[in-house]
Each structure stands twice: as structure tokens, then as C-alpha cells.
Amino acid sequence: MPSLRADAQPGLTWLDESDSFRAEAIFRQHNGQVARKGTMGFSTDAIHISQEADPATGAIIVPIYQTSTYVQEELGKHKGYEYSRTSNPTRAALEQNLARLEGGQFGFAFASGMAAINAVLTLFKSGDHVVTGRNLYGGTFRLFERVLKNFRFEFTYVDTTRLADIEKAIRENTRLLFLETPTNPIMEITDVAAASDLAHRHGLLVAVDNTFMSPYLQRPLELGADIVIHSTTKYLNGHSDGVGGAVVMNDAAVADRLKFLQNAAGAVLGPMDSWLVLRGVKTLAVRMRQHCENGMAVAQFLARHPKVKLVHYPGLASHPQYELGKKQMRGPGGMLSLETGSLENARRVLNSVRLCSLAESLGGVETLISHPATMTHASVPPEERQRLGITDGLVRISVGIEDVEDLIADLDQALAKI
Known about the structure:
Blueprint: H1 23-27, H2 42-48, H3 89-101, E1 106-110, H4 113-121, E2 129-133, H5 138-146, E3 154-158, H6 163-169, E4 174-180, H7 192-201, E5 205-209, H8 214-217, E6 227-231, E7 245-249, H9 252-265, H10 271-281, H11 284-304, E8 310-312, H12 322-328, E9 335-339, H13 343-352, E10 357-358, E11 368-370, H14 382-388, E12 394-398, H15 404-415
Parallel strand pairs: 2-3, 2-4, 4-5, 5-6, 10-11
Antiparallel strand pairs: 1-7, 6-7, 8-9, 9-12, 11-12
């Protein structure tokens, strides 16, 4: 497996074969046996798990089962499918595939990442308390504060990089520790293994939003978490042409409850979007390697640029949790943010880019640039944004897989407008 470009960051080789997080160390459990389906590497699983040739036609790609219902052979006898809200063959293939990639047993696909988070929270009941990070995606914060609080859910927001703060926030009615790591958009990293161990000692479940990393770069279940959540809209799909969400876990009892909720509430992923994510996942490994390489090069360029005050990126040695990132993540990813110093400076950069696209979302093959304070985190109160470092001058970049020299040239000319 190729390492990051030598000129990107001296001494940083997260994806190098010699690294303790090489593919063989994380994703293969051969025990000296010949590889077979189910024991192969990440890329092989991504391409082949639950994606066998169609038995009816031999089609190598899983069909799009664009149907609402299924004819039953006789009363009480069907072929495993009754109604597409309950189950659909295309969605089932995706759910099984994502479960394997995250190292889980059970997978569930939802209509959006927010629908996935909402489903996980409805595993709990009115009066239950959740400890979560102080720096969450704005949509998650909005769901917690403006929707679930109306149903008497209670939330405490803490710095989850500090275990003492997590433990101090736990109450008698606490049921869940909800983590986002790295955080959006400041890129703070929580020690998933240590936080999970702490939470389990208090009888809590641990859910991790793994959207920024994807299962290729981080596997929360293997670090001790109970539930993994994704916005499949982002890196899993990877092509900015579908919206969806996913939840993966190993606990059969929790999975049974979530399966009931998925069917009862009905926010399921449609067959076309399921097919698009299956398509995207096939190239996840190669895309994530390029996102890492480009992200590192762009971060290094920005860190040296005189118009940039600060860069938040896990691959930089200046990142506060740099060593932790190397320990629990396979690579630093393609997400970063930079401080320009003011709203006017941010506006000049955002309005001047030519190759980077000013847009919401992230994780696509194209580079997207955004302004968290007025876009992704507009629902967070201004004083709270300021306290977290989500200033009016902060710009977030989802670094794509274009030729990195072109990206750097575009950012350079945009920064020159400051």
C-alpha cells in the first residue's frame, strides 16, 4: 500500500506498509489460512460482500429493485420480502456490506444521516440523559436541542477529549455517550477506546458518528464503541449524487430494537440511493487514500501561508491530538478547516475560488468549501460558536481527489484576495 507523498509531511506515514495500522493488521484475520470471502481485505470486501452476481441474469451489479411490494406465493408464504419499507433486496445488500466494512454484524440504511441519528436516539425514552460532544455537526445539535428536547430527552455537552469531563457529566439517568470524532469542523479527536471503557463502566451505550473518517480510516466498533453512525451522503457514496444514512452494531438485542424502529418510523433508504452507495463503496479505499494524500498537501500549504492564521487538520504535528489520531485512525482524512481572521476575509476567499465549489456537504470526489458559521453550523448560537472556535473567519474544506497542484493554485489565488 502506498504511503503519503514524502514531500507532504516529513515523518508522517500513516498509510505506509510499515505502520502498525497497515491493512493486514486491522482488516485481515487469516490465521494462516487461504483467503476466502469473509476473511479478505477491506477493498475485496467492499467490492464483493453481498454483491454476488444476480442469479436470474448473471448481472455482476446488484439490481435496483425499484418496487414497493412483492407477490406472495400463497397466504403466509413469501420469498423473504413483503413490503419495501420493511425490507428491499438492494437496501439489504448495502446494509450487509456496510456492516462487514465496519466490523459489525448488523447494518441499517436510512433516508439521511440525520434520520440515522434520530433512529439511534429513539432507542431511548423520555427522561433519558445523553452525554455528547460540545462541538457537533450543526444538524445534530439542532435535532438534539430543537426536536428531541421537546420529548424530554436531556443533553449535556462536554469536551469529550477530556475523559474527566465525560465522567463528571454522567448522571443516574444517563444512557448514551454520543461521540463525533474528528469533530465538525474543528477536528477535535476523542479517544474512542478510553471513552468507551469509561462509558461501559457506567452502563452506557456508546455511539460514534464516523462520517468524517469512513470505515477505511477508523473502525469505532473495534475500538470499543457499540454503535457506528454514518451519513452515507458523504464518503461512503463519494459522488455527491445521493442522500442517506447508516447504523452498524454488533449487539443483537439492540439491533432488533433498531430494526423495529426502522420499519415503524419508515425513514428508510430507497433502492436507487442504496444502489448508488453500493456503487460508491466499491472505490472507497482508493478514494480515501487520495483524500488523505491531497488533504495532507493542502493542509501543509495552508499552514505555511501568511494569510492563514490557523489550520485544523489531524495530520499536522501541530494538531493537539496528533499522536492519538495516529493511534486510532489509519490516516488523517480529507477534512480540514482554516482560520482567516474575519468574516470579510472568509467572504473574499469563498467568493474567489474557481475550482473549489462553495457548497454544503462533504466527502465527494470534488473539493467543497464552506463557511460553517452561516452554513453547516448556523443553528448553533453565535456565542457558543465563538467559544468553540467556529468563528466568522473559519472556512471548512472537504479536499477532493483532483490534482492537488490545481487545488493549491486555486486556494493560493483566493487567499491573495485577502
